[in-house]
Amino acid sequence: MEKLIIGIDLCDTYTQAAVLGREETWVLPTVICRKKTIEEWCIGEEAYKYTLVGEGVIVDKLLSLALKNGTSTIVSTKYDGIWLLSKYLEKLLDMIRAEYPGVPVAQLVISLKNMEMKLMDQLMGCADYLQIPRDNVHIASHTECFVYYVLSQRRDVWGGQVGMFALSDEDLRYYELKVTRGPRQVTALAEHEELEEGFSLNVLDSTSGARMADKILCACADRLLQKKLFSSVFLTGKGFAKTDWAPDFMKKVCHRRRVFVEPTLFARGAALKAEDYLHERTSYPFVCICEGKLKSTVTMEVVKRDTKVQMALAVAGESWYEARSVLEVILDNQDDIELTIIPHQDPKQKRIVKIPLEGFPKRPNKTTRVRIAAGFLDEKTMVIKIVDRGFGELFPKTDAEIRQEVLV
């Protein structure tokens, strides 16, 4: 193997990691332990082992700790939550690299259950700690990794509607995917629902608890799957590592449907997405509309070589976290910047947003150059920053600047 292509499903309780082309995956608790006598670290089941014999101090819920800027004191030393998360990822990558000595990490995609900007920023900071170039590290939602995994299968698997149940210690979720063909492009529309009926996997340790869990899943299947035609149904998560505890549920979902069990689906989907970054042209020629992706295209009309064109500042299907654009224009008889927002699912509902250039200097026509930068706080909130750049020596730039949030 010349390069490592890695997908990591990172959750508060368990972490799963997959290397593209490798059948086996890594599944371990998201915990880290420091030995008491020396500053030596271990993770996963090994961390529990040292803690149980009294030789180490363990820290769990590493994502939550980092997200709230928490700290943990171990052997009189205070460690930041983000440092502990970085150390955990370092030890995880050490485990993977041990199987592939000397092979560099070409691409790494981290899959998250919830796409919170603060956590995503922290994880990109971890990339620096891991000495992996930021261009080689990406973050994707569980929903998007579900899409990549399913669409990597044969077409008859995803030709119609696809459903999926994800059962973990943290929650029970239902995902649904529909691929539609438009006149110009294919759209993969996916969404998820967090089910209130979620339960702790500890109940599966007893016969009565397993029977109750089976009934809960049956009720969910009745509500979510009835009156719909599915090409396939997937089951993922630690809860479905075994399925013999849920005979009635399995009988129900398998009735006239194809069912696939893949406990590490999110990590494998992340690895498939990671591989796609290495190709000049994507192997998945579709617009993905799901959590973590933009659902609208934002354009601005400009004149280029005497022709009016729509310049895209953001495109539906892009990762909102990675969607950034910068444009410099010369104003032509205008006191505002006009944006057109076009929903991908319903282009007829497009709307115009005008941002007044309040506080900008008054100059003769076509002597004001402005810099327009666009980014996102989340998939629905675009931030536009407009800065006066002046016009050469005749009209020096000023401190005039506007920052405005726009709902997309």
Keywords:
Nucleotidyltransferase, domain 5; Substrate Binding Domain Of DNAk, Chain A, domain 1; about 400 residues; alpha+beta; six-stranded mixed β-sheet; globular
Question: What can you see in these coordinates?
Answer:
The protein is of the alpha+beta class. It folds into three domains: 4-142, 2-Layer Sandwich (Nucleotidyltransferase, domain 5), CATH 3.30.420.40; 144-268, Nucleotidyltransferase, domain 5 (2-Layer Sandwich); 296-407, Substrate Binding Domain Of DNAk, Chain A, domain 1, CATH 2.60.34. Helices cover 24% and strands 38% of the residues. It contains nine helices and 24 strands. A six-stranded mixed β-sheet has the order 15-14-11-12-13-16, with helices on both faces. α5 crosses α9 (265-276). The longest helix has 19 residues, at 81-99. The two termini are 43 Å apart. The mean pLDDT is 95.
- In CATH, the homologous superfamily of the largest domain goes by the name ATPase, nucleotide binding domain
The CATH topology assignment of the largest domain is Nucleotidyltransferase, domain 5
Number of domains: 3
Question: Oligomerization state of this entry?
Answer: single chain
The mean pLDDT is 95
The profile of the biggest β sheet is: 6 strands, mixed
CATH-level-2 architecture of the largest domain: 2-Layer Sandwich
Summarize the amount of helix as a percent range: 10-25%
How are the strands ordered across the major sheet?
15-14-11-12-13-16
Radius of gyration: 25 Å
Give the total of beta strands.
24
The CATH first-level class of the largest domain comes to: Alpha Beta
Low-pLDDT stretches are none
Number of helices: 9
Give the class from helix and strand content and strand pairing.
alpha+beta
Strand portion: 35-45%
Calculate the terminal CA-CA distance, rounded to whole Å: 43 Å
